[in-house]
């Protein structure tokens, strides 16, 4: 087994994607794993102003952070989460 050094770790292509069929939307979406920073941001978004967990919309928040276009860029911003929340729960569950 190879012992990794800093350069090898940073050079690793570890942001994998998977295409997910979403028949409710009439096609496939590309889903990319989150980076560590994105995951931390997602976790922070689940904390309300009162410092307590606020899970409202957590699936749409996660989906918005993970659906990417063909170049790997996010398709939905944090400000567009409400738009995704209005879509089919079944479709969000498939992507989630």
Can you lay out the helices and strands and say which pair or pack?
Layout: H1 6-11, E1 17-22, E2 27-32, H2 36-45, H3 58-66, E3 67-68, H4 81-85, H5 89-95
Antiparallel strand pairs: 1-2, 2-3
Give a verbal description of the structure:
- The structure is a single chain.
- The protein is of the alpha+beta class and 96 residues long.
- Helices cover 39% and strands 15% of the residues.
- The protein is built from five helices and three strands.
- It has a three-stranded antiparallel β-sheet.
- Strand 1 and strand 2 form a beta hairpin.
- The longest helix has 10 residues.
Largest sheet, in brief, is: 3 strands, antiparallel
What value does the Rg take, in angstroms?
A: 16 Å
Helix content: 25-40%
User: How many H/I helices?
Assistant: 5
Secondary-structure element order, N to C = HEEHHEHH
Tally of DSSP β-strands: 3
Strand percent estimate: 5-15%
């Amino acid at each position: 087994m190879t012992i990794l050094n800093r350069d090898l770790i940073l050079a690793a292509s570890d942001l994998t994607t998977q295409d997910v069929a979403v028949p409710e939307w009439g096609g496939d979406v590309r889903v990319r794993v989150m980076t560590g920073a994105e995951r931390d941001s997602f976790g922070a978004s689940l904390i309300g102003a009162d410092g307590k967990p606020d899970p409202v919309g957590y699936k749409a928040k996660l989906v918005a952070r993970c659906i990417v276009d063909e170049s790997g860029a996010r398709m939905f911003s944090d400000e567009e989460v409400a738009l995704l929340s209005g879509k089919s729960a079944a479709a969000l569950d498939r992507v989630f």
